[in-house]
Amino acid sequence: MQITVAVAxxxxxxxxxxxxxxxxxxxxxxxxxxxxxxxxxxGDLAGLDVGWRIRKEYQHLEKPxxxxxxxxxxxxxxxxxxxxxxxxxxxxxxxxxxxxxxxVTALVRKWRAEAGIPQRQIxxxxxxxxxxxxxxxxxxxxxxxxxxLRAVDIDIIYINGYGFPAHRGGPMWFAxxxxxxxxxxxxxxxxxxxxxxxxxxxxxxxxxxxxxTFASFNSGHGAAA
Length: 225
Hints:
Elements: H1 5-17, H2 23-33, H3 39-46, H4 48-57, H5 70-77, E1 91-92, E2 98-99, H6 102-115, H7 124-145, H8 151-162, H9 171-178, H10 180-194, H11 202-210
Antiparallel strand pairs: 1-2
Helix pairs in contact: 1-7, 2-7, 7-10, 10-11
């Protein structure tokens, strides 16, 4: 079962690495989408070292050719774990109030240059697309594999468990409102740009080509509900 916050976090981190998007810009885009906090701020709240340790433990399972989120790992190597160390993506005062940290901005720009990652401007809409469509694509795999019976089951988990903005209806419902053909085409575009991590889920491709929605899908038999 792959639909986890970690999946989106990996996409988010790469969003920043491969563009000129800064930490605050990524968070602001997701806050404007409706989230209470941006993903980088959430990482600082939870502790960046949690994901770092998981990545180290499961390093042997990494697929060749997929760029790993090196900036977050390097921040952890510097002891910047987030709020608990008063430094992470942001800097925190004694009351845990965040502020932008010029040191992080300079470090990330330096690491991008060292890695030879081409830079380009990125819009708030693309940041949102890459974060939310990552959830949608993984959600389609979960439906196809039968871990969830209905798309609404995934939506309920994300609204009640992860704070997905309720007025958006959950990632799967949101994708239905956008149109699965549009979502699928965007995922294919990201695959061409960024590789295998963005390979479209077969179910997303199928429903998009059939002009259907996730709401119409029942994993028990794949027929319209």
